[in-house]
């Protein structure tokens, strides 16, 4: 998505430790018009996959998922919650995620009542790096016997293992801006 | 907002400990059409207050803020982050919030670059009970010398101290569904 790539080049910040920050328009401040355009792009990419529900994870993923949901005819959005520890309830699907940026484990949780075997789930998130969060969401869908009809990320770093990991599962993955490489002086190259 | 009150009566769950859960359409699964209607309602309530930016707090607040922002002409949304501890950076405004539901203290943080003295801020959030989160957001605006032109909450419990606390500051507070009382058998009465 050229508009997004241009925005990342102009306003994204490359920080030490291979970190790409897009706080200026998605992860802290939100450019609502661009968000709407990203939602529309996800619709164009996945409209033939016929999802009946979008699954995402707090916090920034919520914004992206809502915008996409409208184009799909106002289908429901379910957002997974991140918790330091699992409450081990029978009413919740739980999967563990390792956060490489924060170097902690946490639990990804979705109440069972919001996912079931008849669901055709489109998973959307803001970032895809090692694919930990997305993998946890996929496993939760498997627990619920729901069908994952596709996965979408706003930004991915294609040189990390996330993209390949998701595609190796046979899942239709689409990325709006796939970063090929970044340099410490702030140069960003896209695939 | 009658539509919202009806939805809360039909799908809200009153849990022990005076907890109102609206996970079915806002705090875990999101009814995107209702969300849009709430955004429009906030616009109707605050259109004469001329905000140039909306400030909210992760996670569910983001959904509400985005929808409202569109009606105000796609003004930017800034969402405060919750952190277990402050990183004490010179680049961040920090205020402490006590969560009564979780009985923990955490820090509410906004990067300084996203708030300044020329801003006319509309603060929006999902819940208003004791007003801890909203008060932290107001204090962050004061730190930034920004003007708070109004505060809006989707749901408040008017018998707790939040509503009065915000109004006592002279701030224009609007609530879409103000709960007067709840009973353990699930009955909910609105103001």
Q: Could you walk me through the main structural features you see in this protein, from its secondary elements to its overall organization?
A:
The structure is a homodimer of 191-residue chains. In chain A, helix 4 (60-71) links the parallel strand 4 and strand 5 (77-83). The longest helix of chain A is centred in the N-terminal third of the chain and has 15 residues, at 32-46. The first copy, chain A, is an alpha/beta fold. The first copy, chain A, is 31% helix and 36% strand. The first copy, chain A, has one domain (2-190): 3-Layer(aba) Sandwich (Rossmann fold). In chain A, the strands form 2 sheets. Chain A has an 8-stranded mixed beta sheet. Chain A has a two-stranded antiparallel sheet with strand order 1-2. In chain A, helix 3 (32-46) packs across helix 4 (60-71). Chain A is globular, with a radius of gyration of 16 Å. Chain A has helices spanning 2-11, 23-27, 32-46, 60-71, 132-143, 162-167, and strands at residues 13-15, 19-21, 29-30, 53-57, 77-83, 92-99, 104-111, 120-128, 147-157, 173-182, 188-190. The A-B interface holds A 23, 28-33, 35-36, 58-60, 62-63, 65-67, 69-70, 74-79, 81, 110-111, 114 and B 23, 28-33, 35-36, 58-60, 62-63, 65-67, 69-70, 74-79, 81, 110-111, 114. Strand 3 (29-30) of chain A pairs antiparallel with strand 5 of chain B.
């Amino acid at each position: 998505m050229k508009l997004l790539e241009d925005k990342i080049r102009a306003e994204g910040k490359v920080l030490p430790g291979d970190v790409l920050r897009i706080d200026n328009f998605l992860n802290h401040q939100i450019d609502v018009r661009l968000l709407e355009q990203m939602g529309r792009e996800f619709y164009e990419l996945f409209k033939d996959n016929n999802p009946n529900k979008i699954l995402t994870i707090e916090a920034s993923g919520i914004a992206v998922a809502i915008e996409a949901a409208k184009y799909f005819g106002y289908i429901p959005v379910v957002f997974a919650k991140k918790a330091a520890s699992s409450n081990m309830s029978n009413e919740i699907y739980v999967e563990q995620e390792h956060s490489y940026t924060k170097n902690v484990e946490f639990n990804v949780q979705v109440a069972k009542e919001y996912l079931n075997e008849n669901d055709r789930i489109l998973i959307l998130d803001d970032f895809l790096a090692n694919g930990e969060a997305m993998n946890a969401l996929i496993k939760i869908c498997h627990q619920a016997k729901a069908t994952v009809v596709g996965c979408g990320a706003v930004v991915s770093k294609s040189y990390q293992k996330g993209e390949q990991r998701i595609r190796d599962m046979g899942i239709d993955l689409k990325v709006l801006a796939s970063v090929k490489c970044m340099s410490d002086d702030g140069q960003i190259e896209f695939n």
